[in-house]
Design brief:
The structure holds two protein chains of two kinds. By secondary structure, chain A is mainly beta. Chain A has a single domain (2-242), classed as Immunoglobulin-like (Sandwich). Chain A has two helices and eleven strands. In chain A, strands 1, 2, 3, 4, 5, 6, 7, 10 and 11 form a nine-stranded antiparallel beta sheet that branches. Chain B is an alpha+beta fold. Chain B has one domain: F-spondin domain (Immunoglobulin-like, Sandwich). Chain B is built from three helices and eleven strands. In chain B, the strands form two sheets. A six-stranded antiparallel beta sheet of chain B has the order 4-3-6-7-9-10, with helices on one face. Chain B has a four-stranded antiparallel beta sheet with strand order 5-2-11-8, with no helix packed on it. In chain B, α2 packs antiparallel against α3. Classes of the chains: A mainly beta, B alpha+beta. At the A-B interface, α1 and β7 of A face α1, β1 and β10 of B.
C-alpha cells in the first residue's frame, strides 16, 4: 500500500514538473537553407521578437549576417537555456534535421522559463529568418510537433542582390555563401523606400521573387532562382519531446 | 492512515480526470492519449461526416482519401521524410486506390473511404462513415492538388473520438510537395493542362536526380505568368497556405 501511495505521489509530481525537453528542427523547404539556430526557453513576457514591432539589434544582425554575437548581451536570453542548435554542418539544408538540443528548465532559477523560441537566418534572403515565437512548452510527457514560419526582420530591402561578403547591418545585399556559391550577375531589385534607414516591424516574409536568367542582361534583376528559391510558410517542423 | 490513503487516491483520480477531460493537445504526436475517451455511449459504434473545403483559386483537389484508424497506426506520411510509393501515385496522378487498399490491411485501421473531388474554392459533399468504436478514433486524409506536378494536401492523426454527438471540429491544412518529381510544370509531366481528372493518362514518374526526395512544404507553382518556359500553368494556379480545411462532425 505504501508503494502505491509513493507511486501516486510520484505520478503527480512528475506530471507537474516535466520541464526537461529535447528539440529538433527539420527544414521543410525545397530550396532554402537555415543558418545555425538559437534555441532558448524564456519567461513569457520576454520574447526574442514581437511581430509588428521593430527587430532588436540582435535579431537584425542574426537575420542579415548569420551572427548571434549580439544575443550574448541581451538580458532576456537566459544563458542556462541558451542552446545553439548545430546541424551536422553549419547549414541546415532542405530536408535535413538538426541533432537533438536538450533544454532543462527544472532548476529554481529558470523554472518560469515556460516558453520556447527559436531563430535562425533564412538563406538566401536579405533579412529573412526562421522563427518560433514564444511557444508554451507542454508539461505533459510526450512528443509534440509545431510548424515554424519564415519572418522578415524589416531591417533591409529585399533587393535579392548577392554581394561578396557580410557588410554589417547598414549595408544592403545578401552576403555570398562560400558553400552555396549563389549567382551574383543580377542588378538587384530597386525600392523607393529604404528599410535600412526606415525600419519596419517584424512581419511574415512575403517570399522571394527570383528570376530565370543569370546572364547579366537588363532582365537579370534578382540573383535568386525563381524555380528553386521560392518558398511558402511554414518552412520548418519543430519536434519537442517533453521528458 | 486509511483515510489519508483514500484522500490521496481521490486527489489523484480527480487530477487525472482534470488532465484528460479536455481533448488531447493537437500538437501531441506521441504520448498518453488513452484516457481521452469520448462521452459514454449506449451503442458501440459512432458515425461521422467528413467534409473538405478547397481554399485555392484554381487548384482542383483529387478524390479525398480518408483512413479511419486507431492512434497506434504509424503516420502514413511525415514532413521531412520520403513518401511511400502508394502516396507518390496519389501525389502525381491523383490515384488513391493503392494507398487506401494497403491501409485496409492494417489492423489499426477501422475503414477507409474515397470521397469526391473538391473543386476550387468550394466545399465537397460530406462523406458519412460509421465506425465500430467509441474511443481511439483518428482520421488521416489526403488528396492531390491537381494542377501541380506532385502537390498534395493532407493531415495525419486528427482525433475524432473527443467529439460529442452534434459537435464539429475544423482543422486547416498546408500544401506539401511530395518530392517525387521536380516541378517542371510542362505538358508531358502534368496530369493535364488543367488537371482534369478525366484526362489523366500520365504514369508515375521514374525516380530522378531532380526529385527532392522528401515531403516538403510546397514552394508554390512558378507558371508561365512568371516566365517559366513551357509551363501549362498561369497565375490563376497560384495558391498559399492554408490550402484546405477538413471539417469533422459527429452524427451518432
Amino acid at each position: 500500500m505504501k508503494i502505491q501511495l509513493l507511486l501516486i505521489f510520484f505520478t503527480l509530481f512528475s506530471q507537474a514538473n516535466a520541464t526537461v525537453f529535447d528539440v529538433t528542427i527539420t527544414n521543410l523547404t525545397t530550396g532554402m537553407h537555415f543558418s545555425q539556430m538559437l534555441v532558448t526557453a524564456h519567461i513569457e513576457s520576454d520574447p526574442l521578437f514581437t511581430p509588428g514591432q521593430l527587430a532588436s539589434n540582435a535579431i537584425e544582425t542574426m537575420a542579415e549576417s548569420e551572427s548571434f554575437v549580439d544575443f550574448g548581451s541581451v538580458g532576456n536570453v537566459d544563458l542556462d537555456t541558451f542552446k545553439p542548435a548545430f546541424p551536422t554542418s553549419d547549414l541546415l539544408n532542405p530536408g535535413e534535421k538538426t541533432s537533438k538540443v536538450t533544454l532543462n528548465t527544472d532548476s529554481t532559477a529558470n523554472a518560469n522559463h515556460t516558453h520556447l523560441s527559436i531563430v535562425g537566418r533564412l538563406i538566401p534572403t536579405n533579412d529573412g529568418f526562421v522563427g518560433l515565437n514564444s511557444y508554451k512548452v507542454p508539461t505533459s510527457v510526450g512528443t509534440y510537433q509545431v510548424y515554424m514560419n519564415a519572418w522578415d526582420a524589416g531591417t533591409e530591402n529585399n533587393d535579392e542582390n548577392v554581394i561578396s561578403t557580410v557588410q554589417g547591418n547598414n549595408n544592403t545585399g545578401i552576403p555570398q555563401h562560400t558553400e552555396l556559391n549563389f549567382n551574383n550577375s543580377g542588378s538587384g531589385l530597386t525600392f523607393t523606400r529604404d528599410e535600412n534607414a526606415n525600419k519596419i516591424g517584424v512581419h511574415i516574409h512575403r517570399g522571394n521573387l527570383g528570376d530565370l536568367v543569370t546572364n547579366g542582361s537588363s532582365s537579370d534583376i534578382s540573383d535568386l532562382d525563381r524555380r528553386i528559391h521560392r518558398f511558402m510558410n511554414p518552412v520548418a517542423l519543430v519536434t519537442i519531446t517533453v521528458k | 492512515m486509511k483515510y489519508v490513503i483514500f484522500t490521496c487516491i481521490a486527489i489523484a483520480v480527480f487530477l487525472t480526470g482534470c488532465k484528460f477531460s479536455a481533448s488531447v493537445d493537437p500538437n501531441l504526436i506521441d504520448g498518453d492519449t488513452t484516457s481521452a475517451s469520448t462521452t459514454s455511449s449506449t451503442t458501440n459504434e459512432t458515425q461521422y461526416d467528413v467534409q473538405i473545403t478547397n481554399f485555392t483559386f484554381n487548384q482542383k483537389f483529387s478524390n479525398a482519401s480518408y483512413i479511419f484508424h486507431k492512434n497506434a497506426l504509424s503516420k502514413e506520411f511525415t514532413p521531412g521524410s520520403a513518401v511511400k510509393s502508394s502516396i507518390e501515385e496519389l501525389c502525381e496522378i491523383g490515384n488513391n486506390q493503392k494507398w487506401l487498399s494497403d491501409a485496409l490491411l492494417n489492423t489499426n485501421v477501422y475503414t477507409t473511404r474515397s470521397g469526391l473531388e473538391t473543386a476550387s474554392h468550394t466545399t465537397s459533399n460530406a462523406t458519412t462513415v460509421t465506425i465500430s468504436a467509441t474511443s481511439d478514433i483518428y482520421l488521416t486524409w489526403g488528396n492531390m492538388l491537381v494542377n501541380t506536378n506532385d502537390g498534395f494536401t493532407g493531415l495525419t492523426h486528427i482525433q475524432m473520438n473527443d467529439l460529442n454527438v452534434g459537435e464539429s471540429k475544423i482543422v486547416d491544412a498546408n500544401a506539401f510537395d511530395c518530392g517525387t518529381e521536380f516541378n517542371f510544370e510542362t505538358p508531358s509531366t502534368m496530369s493535364g493542362p488543367h488537371g482534369d481528372q478525366s484526362t489523366i493518362a500520365k504514369a508515375v514518374s521514374a525516380a530522378a536526380a531532380t526529385d527532392e526526395g522528401f515531403l516538403s512544404i510546397h514552394r508554390g507553382v512558378i507558371t508561365s505568368s512568371d516566365g517559366l518556359a513551357n509551363s501549362v500553368l498561369d497565375h490563376t494556379h497560384f495558391f498559399n497556405n492554408p490550402v484546405a480545411q477538413v471539417k469533422i462532425t459527429r452524427l451518432k
